[in-house]
Amino acid sequence: AQSVTQLGSHVSVSEGALVLLRCNYSSSVPPYLFWYVQYPNQGLQLLLKYTSAATLVKGINGFEAEFKKSETSFHLTKPSAHMSDAAEYFCAVSEDTGRRALTFGSGTRLQVQP
Amino acid sequence: GAVVSQHPSWVICKSGTSVKIECRSLDFQATTMFWYRQFPKQSLMLMATSNEGSKATYEQGVEKDKFLINHASLTLSTLTVTSAHPEDSSFYICSARATLAGRDEQYFGPGTRLTVT
Predict the structure, then answer these.
(1) Are A38 and A51 in contact (CB under 8 A)?
(2) What is the CA radius of gyration of chain B?
């Protein structure tokens, strides 16, 4: 079985500040890990994914995440927050990239203060 | 890129009626589609896995007679909520499996918001 824990249901940062959204996973097999962003009343947009290649994964909109097996973590970061980054962020885990469904974390709502 | 559409984007229906939601892969064939539901301010929960030409596999706790899934072609899966009740009000999101350029990935639709009055 797989599971994802996102620490902090709400994170608030100032515009220009570092964004750090935390994700820890549990998996009995080598995991595939994903970060998605969801804007109000919209579907999911893939930010980035880890598929056992490089441990530091760069995604869209300046986001990146680092896979740390020893810590079972896959935290999402962005050096400088922008107002447009305000949204809900979901971390997800799967046994592969397509064949299996994703197991999602509970989500973190990011607020960006001017 | 791979595009998945859902129709309708939102629907309001009366309690006791049925509503059908379509999930289409527009520019690729999807042998597998997944249906998720998302309650307000909550995460996505997998409802069922839909494979073309075969019966859907439902997650524990999901009533297969209430949530009818039909994956009739490689580009279309439908979710029918039968005898809808207010507690079925939710955001329903599908995803489709695509194998493109040697990569196996899932692509999500924009979601359908169902409100049952």
Answers:
(1) no
(2) 14
Per-residue model confidence as pLDDT tens digits over B50-93 = 988 888 999 999 999 999 999 989 999 999 999 999 999 999 99
Distance CA B18, CA B67 (A): 10
The tokens for B93 are 């999101």
Q: What angle do CA A51, A53, A57 make, to 5 degrees?
A: 75
Size of the A and B interface in Cβ pairs below 8 Å: 53
- Residue A52, beta-bridge partner list: none
Tokens found for residue B57: 């596999």
Are the Cβ atoms of B34 and A41 closer than 8 angstroms?
A: no
- Model confidence pLDDT, tens digit, residues A24-55: 999 888 899 999 999 887 888 999 999 887 89
Q: Is B37 part of the contact surface with chain A (CB cutoff 8 Å)?
A: no
Which of A87, A84, A108 is CA-nearest to residue A20? A108
The pair of structure tokens assigned to A9 is 């249901």
Q: E strands of B59-111, at which residues?
A: 67-73, 76-81, 90-100, 103-108
